[in-house]
């Protein structure tokens, strides 16, 4: 069903976004990659995608800039003839107590993790309405449903993503367009690896000990969610079986938010 459709996946040069791009390409979806990466990394990821026999392009849009997102949507339509799926995945993190949280870091996290999803949704909806079909999938987080200390900007942004998802679903209900958010727990991405490295250094732990400590604090399964598992959920949400799933927040977190 998805063969020949086109998708934008933000933050797809590494981590979760890269796994999602692979999963969609495996279903015959043409991919517009996006994210900050050097030329060698971009070429590597493009090579991975082309092995699926689909078209792939890369757009370096800064997702905090609405005009650049608009241009990326236009470039996707020009390259592939449409823009059927958007996965809002780009994200950054900064950790500090509220009273010490740098103002510029607050602005950056909110812009990257929340405002970017609004911009892309705003620009793709007219295209999807014209085709009477579309899938908007927002990568939120377990932190879109629960909170942790020292992550005020990230938690606020991810809660905002869950709320935006619900509004988008209501405004598109019955149109052939769905909007859902996926709420992963700990995924072993470069972003999380930095937290593991910091924990290992601070607590004088081995990398494996730091990983187990990180998981044990939140994730009862004590296993990382994988980008491939998230990619599989994205593919399902794009399928006919998910036509009536909209406005949902789907946890994939090893039991984190069941506690």
Provide structural commentary.
This protein has 259 residues and is α/β, with parallel strands linked by helices. The protein folds into two domains: 6-187 and 225-258, Rossmann fold, CATH 3.40.50; 188-224, no CATH class. It has helices at 15-25, 39-50, 66-80, 103-131, 152-172, 190-203, 207-218, 227-237; strands at residues 6-9, 30-34, 56-59, 85-88, 134-139, 177-184, 249-252. The chain has a seven-stranded parallel beta sheet, sandwiched between helices. Helix 5 (152-172) links the parallel strand 5 and strand 6 (177-184). The termini are far apart.
What are the salient characteristics of this protein?
259 residues; alpha/beta; Rossmann fold; 2 domains; seven-stranded parallel β-sheet; globular
Short description:
The chain has 259 residues and is α/β, with parallel strands linked by helices.
Q: What Rg do the Cα atoms give?
A: 18 Å
Large-scale geometry:
globular
Number of self-contained structural domains: 2
> What would you give as the CATH superfamily of the largest domain?
NAD(P)-binding Rossmann-like Domain
CATH architecture of the largest domain: 3-Layer(aba) Sandwich
**SSE succession:** EHEHEHEHEHEHHHE
Number of helices in the DSSP assignment: 8
Topology:
Blueprint: E1 6-9, H1 15-25, E2 30-34, H2 39-50, E3 56-59, H3 66-80, E4 85-88, H4 103-131, E5 134-139, H5 152-172, E6 177-184, H6 190-203, H7 207-218, H8 227-237, E7 249-252
Parallel strand pairs: 1-2, 1-4, 2-3, 4-5, 5-6, 6-7
